[in-house]
Design goal:
The complex is a heterodimer of chains A (474) and B (265). Chain A is α/β, with parallel strands linked by helices. Chain A folds into 3 domains: 5-299, NagB/RpiA/CoA transferase-like (Rossmann fold), CATH 3.40.50; 315-390, no CATH class; 399-473, no CATH class. Chain A is 52% helix and 11% strand. Chain A has helices at 8-17, 19-41, 47-63, 65-78, 89-102, 114-119, 121-127, 137-145, 161-172, 180-197, 223-229, 250-261, 297-302, 316-320, 322-327, 338-349, 351-354, 356-359, 366-370, 377-390, 396-409, 412-429, 459-467; strands spanning 81-86, 107-110, 131-134, 200-203, 207-209, 214-219, 233-239, 243-244, 269-274, 287-293, 434-435, 451-452. In chain A, strands 1-10-7-4-2-3 form a 6-stranded parallel beta sheet, sandwiched between helices. In chain A, strands 8-5-6-9 form a 4-stranded mixed beta sheet, sandwiched between helices. A two-stranded antiparallel sheet of chain A has the order 11-12. In chain A, α16 packs parallel to α20. Chain B has 2 domains: 6-138, Glutathione S-transferase Yfyf (Class Pi), Chain A, domain 2, CATH 1.20.1050; 150-264, 3-Layer(aba) Sandwich (Rossmann fold). Chain B has 13 helices and 8 strands. In chain B, the strands form 2 sheets. In chain B, strands 2-1-3-4 form a 4-stranded parallel beta sheet, sandwiched between helices. Chain B has a 4-stranded parallel beta sheet with strand order 6-5-7-8, sandwiched between helices. In chain B, α5 (97-110) runs antiparallel to α6 and α11 crosses α12 (230-243). The model of chain B has no long low-confidence stretch (mean pLDDT 93). The chains are: A alpha/beta (474), B alpha/beta (265). Chains A and B meet through α1, α15, α19, α20 and α21 of A and α1, α2, α3, α4 and α8 of B.
């Protein structure tokens, strides 16, 4: 999808104007959080220690990512998979399209995958005349609506049931119903036909296990299992940081992923897919393509944002973020929303496109507290803000203002003089001590809030007149 | 980034120190210019418990607004000024969790490539305490001896609760005041939407967040909403003042100090 991060403030206006959106989002994120907190409380063992261990495992893996990736490729190919590597999104689209064409695919079913959203796979395949059907219920809904996902694990979180009902009746010609079981039954019936006639299943990966060349996928709807076992060809699209060294590393990561995401001790389905169908196997694809996507990650790996590549896409930072809860996922303007998106999107797209995203945080720190792999998200947001200034993505007004602020703050005497002048002037202008409007870049404050008038006698003046200037006071 | 020095062991775990205590007041630029009574109240409370209060008058702003918006060069300039003003010994006490976090956690990042400044930042940083943390953890205060009266709800500021891990200290102090009835709001540690520069760069989101916060404050029926950070109170107070909600923001230091004597109002 075409990034719209540069339109952040317009996106926010649209989001805030939509009352349904905020109700739907706060309902779902609230439920996820409640379940997550309950799962943390009842965690068998020390949850903090588990986070720390997972963080270390991911960091250690990233340190030798090339070694683990080579091992993964070797083991996957030994078991009959074909592994492809794409440097960027365009190359990934080309490779995926060529694979689909070479395999003679007319219809592909997909299970949920953020990597395919990132590279814009659906549009590319559709452009090549291949029908693509999303089979995760949430993804199916937003595909019908022609919208991108607004949450990592609940892509249609912004839709109310009434909106889904209208969508199903308009786009699918079904009888209008707002009953959730009936809506689910409609999707299941429609999708079943697709599963049975698709030549290719496309999935992402939650983890790639280097030791065995396996692809691990969690899901709650069994659609991932059907999409990866029923069609003749299975194509996996995964970004390179998904690799973990050993099969024994998988359980500790899964424990954290599902609890952090939905509060489940384990998802309804965990598929660990290893190689192609062997003689005597009851099911499974006879062709397995694994497309590893770099798309800027090698560069991230080398720099100060490496910790972002620990992310396992659980969505906990979205659920707890008061900004995400207020504006939803679409406002962020690309596929990755919330705090993790505010770090990852500028890294993948560049600050020219996405410099507004790191600013879209109060740095409240709630995201870092829930992150199962302990990514210091506020610190990374601050680094990105510093990069934005260094790369010239700050308005001249802001830079000038900050230089002036620093100059005033450089001298206590100047500050005191300005405080006293400001205090007297404001007392004359605003007799009740409230400033109802501020100029220029500060004007946003006073749209719906007053600003306090400065004191006529600032504290430093008060203290001096009460206590005098003592040697240590200078 | 900092190694813990002698000051880390100065937290006495609720034991009152026997020697006289000296503390430098880091009054913050917000209190200086906009809420001088909060800085006075902080000094009053400290002196009530025998602390010799020094006020370095060359202090200005810790540099957080510049740091948080990515202007590191300007932030370093202000941070260097702060370190000059507070270089020395004794505790540094501030009525702001956010400003304390700036000095303790962010200065080491600012000076990560300047070993000498980094050392100075670390040695100054470990002397910094937020007021309620200092009273409870260092002085071992169990009763703030305040005559304040009213029904109060506490907003946990993000930097105090998640940055410094201070959640219980202000509650213990408030509960010890006979005239104070402490009522908890739902999600007291959810951000009020201030976020410094965030509140002017993203005012619509900020306002939506503060309205949600005020909803929860009003649900308690409290007369006062208090906090250990003036930024939050300025944000909540700005919305309260514009819309006329029936609640009064007041800094924790003012409650601890008790009703102000007449000559200070």
């Amino acid at each position: 999808m075409e990034p719209k991060c540069h339109n952040f403030s317009r996106n926010v206006e649209q989001a805030l104007a939509n009352r349904n959106l905020q109700a739907a989002i706060s309902r779902t994120t609230g439920r996820f959080l409640e379940h997550r907190n309950a799962a943390v409380r009842s965690f068998p063992g020390d949850f903090e220690a588990a986070r720390e261990a997972a963080s270390r495992l991911k960091l250690a893996t990233l340190r030798d990512l090339d070694i683990h990736l080579s091992r993964f490729i070797e083991e996957a190919e030994r078991r009959g998979a074909t592994v492809h590597i794409a440097r960027d999104a365009a190359e990934a689209r080309d490779i995926a399209t060529r694979i689909a064409k070479d395999e003679g695919i007319a219809l592909a079913v997909k299970s949920k995958s953020m990597a395919t959203e990132e590279i814009g796979l659906n549009e590319a395949l559709e452009g090549a005349g291949i029908e693509v059907v999303e089979s995760d219920l949430g993804e199916y809904i937003i595909q019908l609506a022609g919208e991108p996902p607004s949450h990592l694990i609940a892509p249609a979180v912004h839709k109310t049931r009434e909106e889904v009902a209208r969508l199903f009746s308009e786009k699918l010609g079904e009888t209008y119903t707002e009953e959730i079981p009936e809506l689910v039954a409609i999707a299941r019936r429609r999708l079943r036909e697709k599963f049975l006639s698709a030549g290719m299943g496309i999935s992402g990966a939650n983890f790639l296990v280097a030791e065995t060349g396996s692809v691990a996928i969690v899901s709650n709807e069994a659609n991932a299992r059907m999409a990866t076992t029923l069609p003749r060809v299975h194509m996996v699209v995964a970004s390179i940081e998904k690799v973990i060294p050993l099969m024994s590393d998988l359980p500790p990561m899964l424990r954290l992923l599902t609890r952090s995401a939905t509060g489940q001790p384990i998802s309804s389905y965990v598929s660990v897919l290893t190689g192609v169908r062997r003689p005597g196997d009851a099911e499974g694809p006879s062709k397995l393509h694994i497309l590893l996507v770099d798309n800027g990650r090698s560069a991230i790996l080398r720099g100060k944002y490496r910790e972002m590549l620990k992310c396992i896409r659980c969505g906990a930072c979205l659920n707890i973020c008061p900004v995400y809860q207020t504006i939803g996922g679409h406002a962020y303007g690309w596929v990755y929303p919330g705090p993790m998106g505010s770090v990852l999107s500028p890294l993948l797209l560049g600050l020219r496109e996405a410099s507004a995203l790191p600013d879209a945080s109060t740095l409240c720190g709630a995201c870092a507290d829930v992150c199962p792999v302990k990514i210091p998200l506020p610190d990374l947001l601050l680094e990105l803000r510093a990069d934005a200034r260094a790369q010239g993505h700050r308005t001249p007004g802001e830079v000038l203002g900050m230089k002036g602020f620093a100059a005033i703050m450089g001298r206590a005497g100047i500050l005191e003089a300005l405080e006293r002048i400001g205090g007297v002037v404001c007392r004359l202008l605003f007799k009740d001590g409230k400033i109802p409007w501020l100029p220029f870049i500060l004007s946003g404050w006073t749209d719906r809030r007053d600003f306090p008038a400065p004191a006529v006698r600032p504290f430093r003046k008060l203290w001096k007149s009460k206590r005098g200037v003592l040697p240590w006071n200078r | 980034m900092c190694e813990h020095g002698e000051f880390a062991s100065l937290i006495l775990g609720g034991m009152a120190p026997s020697a006289p205590v000296t503390a430098s007041l880091f009054f913050t630029c917000l209190a200086d210019a906009l809420y001088p009574n909060v800085a006075l109240a902080t000094a009053t409370v400290l002196e009530r418990f025998g602390v010799t209060v020094r006020v370095p008058l060359s202090q200005t702003c810790c540099g957080q607004p510049a740091y948080n918006s990515g202007h590191r060069k300007e932030a370093r300039k202000m941070a260097a000024g702060f370190l000059r003003a507070f270089d020395g010994d004794g505790y540094i006490v501030t009525p702001s969790g956010s400003c304390a976090v700036m000095v303790k956690e962010m200065y080491p990042v600012l000076f990560r490539n300047e070993p000498r400044m980094l050392d100075l930042a670390c040695s100054v940083g470990e002397r910094v305490f937020e007021l309620s943390q200092f009273l409870v953890d260092v002085l071992g205060v169990t009763d703030p001896l305040s005559a304040f009266k009213g029904k109060v709800t506490l907003h946990d500021s993000c930097h105090l609760v998640r940055g410094l891990g201070v959640r219980e200290q202000p509650r213990r102090l408030l509960r010890a005041i006979p005239g104070v009835e402490l009522v908890e709001m739902e999600d007291s540690d959810r951000c009020c939407g201030f976020g410094g520069v965030f509140s002017v760069k993203n005012p619509h989101i900020s306002c939506a967040m503060v309205e949600k916060k005020i909803e929860r404050i009003l649900a308690t029926g409290a007369q006062y909403v208090t906090s250990g950070d003036l930024g939050c109170l300025m944000n909540i107070g700005g919305a309260v003042s514009r819309s006329g909600y029936p609640v009064q923001p007041i800094h924790l230091a003012e409650i601890l100090a008790g009703p102000p004597p007449d000559e200070e109002t």
